[in-house]
Amino acid sequence: MREMRTVIQRVQRASVTVNGSTVSSIGQGLLLLLGVEAADTEEDVQWLSRKVLCLRIFDDEEGVMNRNITDVGGDITVVSQFTLMASYKKGNRPSWIRAAGHEHAVPIYESFVAALREGLGKPVGTGIFGAEMQVELVNDGPVTICMDTKNKE
């Protein structure tokens, strides 16, 4: 089973801090939390990055969600989050056995960020993979969408 997952949050601003230092900060745009599974491939990266870049969740001049991230000149920050791969079927303590290990997850994460950077035409912010991070955001709307490469809904 393949299932790369992301939580997409439309934000007015967002930042990522590690050990008291800000490592990423954006204004209007998208904050993405990304979970990678061991079976995820470059095909998943390409599908998910295209969907994120084309997702029309920003208002046009009539207040209708009709614009994508590039239309509004917005920014993107991507934060790795293995806990998105939680299995909670048995008991009350989540299992993260489906989450990819560093040796697979880091290249997939980096490829996803690179695909977004290429499509956006400007740098994409990141957290630090595997670090303890503090993520702050002002959710705009709020607009929050969960997306994965398995269901493709």
**CATH architect. name:** 3-Layer(bba) Sandwich
Within CATH, the superfamily carries the name D-tyrosyl-tRNA(Tyr) deacylase
Rg over CA atoms, rounded to whole Å, is: 15 Å
The name CATH uses for the topology is: D-tyrosyl-trna(Tyr) Deacylase, Chain: A
Q: How many helical elements?
A: 2
Strand content: 35-45%
- The beta-strand count equals 8
Overall mean pLDDT stands at 94
Helix content: 10-25%
Name the shape in a single word: globular
Number of separate domains: 1
What structural class do helix, strand and pairing data support? alpha/beta
State the end-to-end CA separation: 16 Å
> What is the C-level CATH assignment?
Alpha Beta
The topology string of helices and strands comes to: EEEHEEEHEE
Give a quick account of the main beta sheet: strands, pairing sense, barrel closure.
Answer: 6 strands, mixed
Q: Give the uncertain stretches in residue-range form.
A: none
